[in-house]
Amino acid sequence: MTCCQHNHQETTIDSNSPPSGAPVAGADLVSEQQTAAGRSIEHTSFDIIDAEIGSHAYSTEQWPIVRRMIHASADFELNGLTEFHPSAVSAGLAALAETAEHRGSRPLIADVGMILAGLSSPRLHCFGLHPHQFIADADVIAEAQAQGSTRAVLAMRKARSLGLLDDALVGIGNAPTALIELVRLIEQEQVRPALVIGMPVGFVAAAESKALLADLDVVPWIIVRGRKGGSPLVVAAIHALLALADAERPQIGQPL
Which end of the chain has fewer CB atoms < 10 Å from its terminal CB, N or C? Predict the structure, then answer.
């Protein structure tokens, strides 16, 4: 049994074949639900989304990410609002494969704890991802109060000071100011995350922060245009990326 396999005996599901881009049914992958019933419900949900969407403009590797985001939100407008840097998916998969191949670790930086609470710990462990968020740290709060800034800005700066942003996966689903600061760090301090999933939600600077990220070419990104977004969408995008890596990179299925 490898770290990329569930610790259970079930290897079949009671649904039809999963949609294109989904992990192979019965492959006992860490990215799959742990019960046959759970896998059946999830795959059936994907089938329903595929049927209702019909055609779309996403690539074979992009669509499973958008589909899982729709699955998490029941928001079909994400078909179209979700945009990808041309190398976003390939960069994310390459980062996961590299970490697994060298039995290493890679930071996963989130703007808020809600993202970390929603992520599957076994899946993160399997791919060598170490989650961090600093927005609730006492020093971050104190510094933000002293500077008249936001905790989200100071949390990104703390991640930078700890050397955790370079080569990291970064997920921002709540705070536009976190994304704006990250863009500044990329442009002015040359930090280079492996992939930025920028989906802050809201009415103040949310759309603008994502537009700033989309103007960058030096770092791959995934965004949701406009006001929509949120931590659940970031979680869904990360889980979808892990599922792609799980299904397409068999060398990852080794103990880390």
Answer: N
Q: Would you say 46 and 19 are in contact if contact means Cβ atoms under 8 Å apart?
A: yes
Q: Rounded CA gap, 18 and 95, in Å?
A: 26
Residues with a catalytic annotation lie at 71
CA–CA separation, 77 and 34 (whole Å): 30
The per-residue pLDDT for range 19-56, each reduced to its tens digit, is 444 444 444 566 666 677 777 888 899 899 999 998 89
Pair of tokens at residue 252: 């990852």
Domain span holding position 138: 83-252
Do the Cβ atoms of 22 and 46 come closer than 8 Å? Answer: yes
Contact present, 210 and 199 (Cβ < 8 Å): yes
Residue 207 and residue 226 in contact, taking contact as beta carbons nearer than 8 Å: yes
Q: Considering the domain boundaries, does residue 77 fall inside one?
A: no
Q: Is 16 inside any structural domain?
A: no
Give φ, ψ of 195 to 5 degrees. -160, 140
Q: Retrieve residue 233's tokens.
A: 């969408």
Domain count, the chain: 1
> Which helix H or strand E contains 83, and what residues bound it?
strand 82-84
pLDDT tens digit sequence for 116-167: 999 999 999 989 999 999 999 999 999 999 999 999 999 999 999 999 999 9
